[in-house]
What does this fold into?
Amino acid sequence: MLYLLWIFLCLELKEYTALYIFFVTCAVCFLGIEFLIIFEPFFKPMIVTQKDIYGTYVIDKDKYPGEQANWQYKNFKFEITQDNKMIFQSHIYDNYWKQEIVDVSYAPGYFDFNKNEYCNQRIRIHSNRNNHHIIRNNPTLYRKSFNRFYYVFESEKFGNVFFKKGT
It folds into this structure.
């Protein structure tokens, strides 16, 4: 309000600097809005499809770096295959890995008519109490911008365990 009052006072005094400042401010606001409209897709979380979910997942050491994350990275990984299986691997010793294969289904997110498929699907693990403690519960999917997402598993022994797609 005071800004507009100042402009009108300056215009009465025949100073055109206030008008110049007003137009520059409007131009900067307009360019800022255009910037947000143009670059909005880059800041939105990615849309995860079933094809994006297939692949190998490892411990995300960036979430909580340290000795525990390094140890988990060396000892746990899993793969989701196209035949709806999760192959969870836990390191036993040397080059020996224990594999647990469990069925996976997908909880539908929403149907994208442009892509003609369901998006933001989450995996549901069909495991039981005999499976490893990391994969007993369904994970939570977290989506980020720039085509990144990760899963968080709730473990009885470790708390939250973060997996990202990669090798």
